[in-house]
Specification:
2 copies of one chain form a homodimer. Chain A is of the alpha+beta class. Chain A is 34% helix and 25% strand. The first copy, chain A, starts with a helix and ends in a 9-residue tail after the last strand. At the A-B interface, helix 1, strand 2, strand 3, helix 4 and strand 4 of A face helix 1, strand 2, strand 3, helix 3 and helix 4 of B.
């Protein structure tokens, strides 16, 4: 069966759509500025479950996932639209007022204005489409396609926490009654923090050669970046920063590794830096406390994982809808 | 129960969102140009039924409804994003290839580029969010709020056809086997034509004081325009242009009138013109062959319908989700 990534690739080839396939489309605004735009569809019982979270947190996450795409371009978010479909029983409930309260709480932090949207009825499940636009200095948007062999690979924060949080939810743990270490993991899943300030600082200092946000999972998202750049990568298992609470979740290193590689939804930034820019990265105020995970190689399409004395070929194993 | 329009009004008041509530949001692009953006959510079994239409026509209509919003601002459409959610059985079918073929057929006509989107799985029904942006000369976007007492009211084309087409579908008539008059009505429902060129010409000649597209129905959309403008209206039943095939659908004038007033989805433009601009409208290349439907009054919020020797207060009766 065709994957969703193959499907997008086919669309691009068939119709000649040049602007699709990155975290955001980059569009000219004026002489000094480009606009970036993104859209993310969230479907009840696929992307969220009402018994696992609250309307506020759904509103917040709907915005967060799109802000993360804007962050991955190095852009500053500016405006948003929300299309929301709800069944009649939800319309009669306080779902939407909670949803917009959560949306607004996060939007205020980033000075994002709601400029439009649509409201529709659905037969039974909630669906949300989150649209966010941002702005970036002309020509400075960071694409997925700029990575070159020899570039070092970095992430903006610790990985695997969101996936462990999802597992806890599946096990019946709820945020209201969770232990404190569980709460930390649940928050990674339910209220992700988009790395907007990091993205802006990286791009304005022209540090990254390529960037993507970690929504599908490190193994998938690194594969996307490599495919768009026509390169490969080599990463080291013992350099991947695991979320500090993963150890409480599982004693198994292999399980922690799987969560960090394939878990998805950490919404950290994954970016590559040319050797001559490493010093610039180290000087950056918001520099990641983590070292490089590995490097970009000329071995197009091949991602090697060095785990102790073994080298594995890493297959994209993150979340996908199809 | 709160209507969807009341809901949007509440959001605007509660959070101070100034840009929501028109057909599109108007955003500054550069010194000469404004950008307009709109989003429309279409849900299977609410907004379309797969046994009534084809994937191509769904793709085409998804774009058409958003193009109509852009037309209602007097703007030229430029780019689009599509978020689409489908259940796995549709993913395995050729639904999406047909959908994008239909989308692309209409997009080519208006030179609209697909710049982004999202693909998601849904549990059982298809959902589409159509986002379109357009451009208009700075300050020239035509809002809903500019109508003044004494302005004349016009529409860009004949009304009631889409609603009659919907009735035919409900009665079991299908486009493949329909009689020719039925086909004309079904096409109004299934492949609406957005009035993009009319919108652009009206705005560039600065003819309309206010404009909206007829998606919900004349009675509802005229009420939206009047509410935003703080005015009322008086329209004449015998001046409403009925679709020419409505007579074949029903011999009853009252039924034709109800279809034209409350039917919705005609996607014609409804606009108001100040007395001193009427001459300009008459000179316009694309001028409507229809005369004025009536005029704007100072009687805020009240829409009068003059039907023969009776005057009725017209309540918004068009389509609404809630």
């Amino acid at each position: 069966m065709l994957t969703e990534f193959g499907f997008i690739e086919n669309l691009r080839a068939k119709y000649g759509f040049q602007k699709i396939g990155d975290d955001c489309a980059v569009l000219p605004k004026n002489a000094k500025t480009d606009t970036v735009v993104t859209t993310d569809l969230l479907v009840e019982d696929i992307d969220f479950r009402l018994d696992w979270t609250t309307p506020e947190l759904i509103g917040q996450k709907a915005l967060a996932v799109s802000l993360s795409d804007v962050a991955a371009m190095g852009a500053k978010p500016v405006w948003s639209m929300i299309s929301v479909g709800v069944p009649e029983r939800r319309w009669r409930s306080d779902f939407l007022s909670g949803f917009y309260r959560g949306w607004h709480r996060l939007a205020k932090k980033f000075d994002v204005e709601l400029v439009g949207g649509d409201v529709s009825r659905t037969p039974d499940r909630i669906v949300v489409d989150s649209i966010v636009a941002g702005e970036v200095k002309k020509g400075r948007a960071v694409l997925r396609s700029g990575a070159r062999p020899g570039d070092q690979i970095f992430v903006s924060g610790a990985l695997g926490g969101a996936a462990a949080g999802l597992r806890l939810l599946e096990q019946g743990v709820r945020i209201e009654t969770a232990a404190s270490w569980q709460k930390r993991l649940l928050e990674r899943q339910l209220t992700p923090t988009p790395r907007v300030a990091d993205g802006i600082e990286l791009a304005s200092n022209r540090i990254p050669s390529a960037m993507i946000d970690l929504s599908d999972g490190l193994s998938s998202d690194l594969a996307h970046l490599c495919r768009e750049s026509g390169v490969g990568a080599r990463i080291f298992a013992d350099r991947i920063p695991f979320h500090p609470k993963l150890k409480a979740f599982t004693r198994s290193f292999d399980e922690r590794l799987a969560l960090a590689l394939d878990g998805g939804e950490d919404f950290e930034l994954l970016y590559t830096v040319a050797p001559k820019k490493i010093l610039g990265l180290q000087k950056q105020a918001r520099k990641s406390s983590f070292g490089s995970l590995g490097e970009i190689t000329a071995n197009a399409g091949i991602i090697e994982l060095i785990n102790g004395d073994k080298t594995l070929i890493l297959e994209p194993g993150g979340f996908r809808h199809f």
